[in-house]
Amino acid sequence: MFDPEKYRDRIEENKRRYRISASWQEPDRVPIHISTGGSFYSKLFGYNIRDYYTDPEVCMEVQLKGLEWAYEELRDDRTGYGLHVDLGPIAEGLYFGFPIEYPDDTSPWIVRALETPEQIEAFEVPDPAESPGLADACRRIEEYKDLAKKRGIDLPVGGGIGIHPPLSCACALAEPELIFTLMAEEPELIHRFFAKLLEAFCRLIDWRDGISGRKTESIGLADDHSAFVSNAMYREMVLPYNMAIYDRYGKKGRSLHADGPNDHHFEMYANDVKLTSMDIGGFSDIANAKPALHGKTRFSGGLNCRDLYYDLETAKPVIDRAIRIGAPGGGFTLAVGGETYVGVNPDTLVKAVEYAKEAGRYPVCTQ
Question: Residue 236, class by beta-carbon neighbours within 10 Å (0-12 exposed, 13-18 middle, 19+ buried)?
Answer without folding.
Answer: middle
